[in-house]
Amino acid sequence: MVSLLNLCTTCCAFLFLASTVGSDRVFTEEELAEYDGSDPSKPIYLSIKGAVYDVTKGKDFYGKDAAYNALVGRDSTVSIARMSLEPADLALKHDISVLSSSELEALESVITSTYVPKYPVVGRLDVAAAESADSRRTDL
After folding, report:
1. What is the pTM of this model?
2. Where are the beta strands (DSSP E) in the chain?
3. Phi, psi at 11, each rounded to 5°
């Protein structure tokens, strides 16, 4: 079992990685949405825990009409942690506070076993701006 301290250390390491590896580009949610696989001339990106990954080489999985296309062009942290394509999970985006300890462990496992070794980090998502926009939407 992963201790909370180890999990927090791993989370911090990935946030650091997201801010230092790859491009220094910072994406807004609107900018990230442009890389959803619908335009074959653009790369395909998705965000997990603030890191934006170029998953273009996995276009058979993430491209237009592919099985996991719902995950791209957005932050898919919660969906990936829960292995879910349900609209409710997709809407939760980067809100890891809703995840159980086993879901957090699953998230870290899939990041380290799938995304880090296969897909380059091309930037980071401006999570603070996304959270601010989300709170404005719920205040309406």
Report:
1. 0.78
2. 26-27, 45-48, 51-54, 121-125
3. -60, -45
CB 96 within 8 A of CB 80: no
Domains for the chain: give ranges and CATH numbers.
4-139 (3.10.120.10)
Q: Tens place of pLDDT for every residue, the chain, 140 residues?
A: 445 545 454 454 444 444 445 568 999 999 999 999 999 999 999 999 999 999 999 999 999 999 999 999 999 999 999 999 999 999 998 899 999 999 999 999 999 999 999 999 999 999 777 666 655 545 55
Contacts 24+ apart (CB under 8 A), 131-136: 131/94, 133/29, 134/93
Pairing relation of β-strands 121-125 and 51-54?
antiparallel
Q: What are the helix (H) ranges across 21-76?
A: 29-33, 59-62
From residue 102, give the alpha-carbon distance in Å to each of 16, 55, 59, 78, 98: 23, 25, 29, 12, 12
Nearest of 88, 52, 83 to residue 68 by alpha carbon: 83
Question: For 90, phi and psi rounded to 5 degrees?
Answer: -60, -35
Q: Are 50 and 78 in contact (CB under 8 A)?
A: no
